[in-house]
Design brief:
By secondary structure, this protein is α+β, with helices and mostly antiparallel strands. It has twelve helices and 13 strands. It has helices at residues 2-19, 31-47, 51-66, 93-98, 106-114, 127-133, 169-197, 210-226, 241-248, 250-267, 291-306, 333-349; strands at residues 70-76, 82-89, 101-102, 118-120, 141-149, 152-161, 231-238, 273-276, 281-287, 309-310, 315-316, 319-326, 355-357. Strands 3-2-1-6-5-4 form a six-stranded antiparallel β-sheet, with helices on both faces. Strands 8-9-7-12-13 form a five-stranded mixed β-sheet, with helices on both faces. Strands 10-11 form a two-stranded antiparallel sheet. The longest helix is centred in the middle third of the chain and has 29 residues, at 169-197.
Length: 368
């Protein structure tokens, strides 16, 4: 793809030198490429709470699709209400640091507040508008779309090109799709930060909320990687929780979750972490623990739960556990959680009240 673009540029240069005429309009990127790039962004947005990572990937994909001269995410600073460059390609650091734009600027103001996009096919035909909206460098064509969440404008997504007609109508539509993904990433990051500042403990179970647990899991895996230690992730599911809800009702089922949470907290060490993964699921990180020790811990937890009765109704319950070990079952949070989910599924499918794990690679086909 890149080689073809380089050849196209070369042909344009020859044509200009020999015939002194304008280059033809660029063709739109293939539909399958646009779908693939959007899929990349959605997968990234699903796996991280850090908007910087997603915005950087987003700009990379836009530059690759449209061969942009410059591309940037420009956001409203909530403290000053001026527009600032958050992430960019093709802009100097000096320009980005110094850039401040008043939102009330005509075309940009309409864009930010009403969502009316700016599409300039040929700057020579709209020189005043081009000068008004451009960032650091003059351009031949440009597309700008709004970034908005819950009807609240956050800023805009900007792309320009040295070629005229670089952004056809479908290009503006693709740009808006990218702008919407940027908005989702920014909102997810904001909610994540707010959640960290709020209560970190799940009230129903007494364990950590999932986002807090994931934060600790990242730290635990980072430490294990740095000091060549082992680490394990356990995913637990209450086997008969739906039957408990149907038989005993909402209040008693929540009491069961709370008592299970207390048992888990009693069995883990201060260096470990435990959180609520789903409605009736728990997730644990066992620090400096190899696979064999993690499986023994899971077996002990299963025996402890099955030997007890819970709540004032004396309910008997069991759990299924999937184990994933670092580094042989995965080297990232995503890989370890994926492996643990697969192992838990095998434990549930195999009759429940049991533990499953993968002996070797995280992508193993058959659990031990």
């Amino acid at each position: 793809m890149q080689l073809a673009w380089q050849r196209k540029n070369h042909y344009h240069e020859v044509e200009l030198r020999e015939n002194q005429r304008e280059p033809s309009a660029m063709s739109s990127p293939p539909t399958d490429q646009r779908f693939r790039f959007i899929s990349d962004l959605l997968q990234s947005a699903r796996s991280t709470n850090q908007h910087e990572e997603i915005l950087s990937l987003l700009i990379d994909r836009l530059v690759r699709m449209y061969h942009c001269q410059a591309c940037a995410v420009v956001l409203i600073d909530p403290k000053t209400e001026y527009l600032q460059v958050e992430c960019s390609h093709g802009l100097s650091l000096t320009f980005c640091n110094a850039f401040r734009r008043n939102i009330a600027t005509a075309a940009i103001g309409r864009l930010v507040w009403t969502g009316e996009p700016v599409l300039i096919p040929d700057a020579d035909l709209q020189p005043e508008l081009a000068e008004e909206v451009r960032l650091e460098h003059p351009f031949r064509s440009c597309a700008i779309v709004q970034i908005m969440v819950d009807e609240r404008p956050l800023g805009y997504l900007y792309a320009d090109s040295r070629e005229k007609n670089a952004f056809a109508l479908e290009g503006a539509e693709t740009m808006q799709a990218f702008g919407d993904i940027a908005a989702l990433a920014l909102n997810k990051s904001r909610l994540f930060e707010q959640n960290l500042r709020l209560e970190r403990v799940d009230r129903e179970t007494g364990l950590e909320k999932y986002v807090t647990f994931i934060e600790k899991l990242h730290v635990g895996i980072g430490r294990a990687r740095e000091f060549k230690e082992r680490c394990a992730v356990l995913l637990l599911d209450v086997d008969n929780f739906k039957e408990t809800v149907n038989t005993y009702g909402y209040t008693t089922s929540r009491e069961l979750l709370r008592e299970l949470g207390e048992r888990i907290k009693a069995m883990v060490r201060p260096v470990d972490a435990g959180g609520r993964y789903g409605f009736d699921e728990f997730v644990l990180m066992l620090a400096n623990t190899d696979q064999e020790s993690a499986v023994r811990f899971a077996q002990g937890l299963i025996r402890d739960v099955s030997a007890r009765s819970f709540t004032s109704k004396k309910i008997s319950s069991t759990i299924s556990v999937g184990v994933a070990a670092f580094p042989q079952n995965g080297e990232t949070v995503e890989e370890l959680l994926t492996t643990a989910k697969k192992a838990l599924f095998e434990a549930q499918r195999g009759g429940r009240n049991s533990v499953r794990f993968y002996e070797r690679e995280w992508y193993a086909q058959r659990p031990a």
